[in-house]
Amino acid sequence: MKAFVDRDGCIGCQACAGTCPEVFSMDDDNISVPIKEDIPEEVLDSAKDARDGCPVSVISIK
Predict the structure, then answer these.
(1) For residues 32 and 5, is the Cβ–Cβ distance under 8 A?
(2) Class of domain 1-39
(3) How far apart are CA 60 and CA 29, in angstroms?
(4) Which residues fall within 8 angstroms of residue 4, CB to CB, at 6 or more apart?
(5) Where would one find coiled-coil regions in this protein (predicted)?
(6) What is the pLDDT of residue 21?
């Protein structure tokens, strides 16, 4: 599974990076950037928590 962020809708609150830093980080413009590789199985639940906790619902996991 991979994480995706709608960068146009990201408000830079950093909740995803705080919830799952193994999958999400913030770029120089303070926009969320997911890792490009598959989400490691051991952090998948945390990545889903980050998706579910996004206040603007711009994260998807497929």
Answers:
(1) yes
(2) alpha beta
(3) 20
(4) 34, 59, 60, 61, 62
(5) none
(6) 98
Give 51's pLDDT tier (boundaries 50, 70, 90). very high
User: Other CB atoms closer than 10 Å to residue 6's CB: what's the count?
Assistant: 13
**Is the pTM for the entire model greater than 0.85?**
yes
Cα–Cα distance between 23 and 36 in angstroms, integer?
Answer: 9
Q: What is the pLDDT of residue 10?
A: 98
Q: Which of 62, 60, 61, 52 is nearest to 15 (CA)?
A: 52
Supply the pLDDT for residue 17.
Answer: 98
Cβ contacts of 18 within 8 Å, gap of 6 or more = none
pLDDT for position 50: 98
Structure tokens, 25: 């980080």
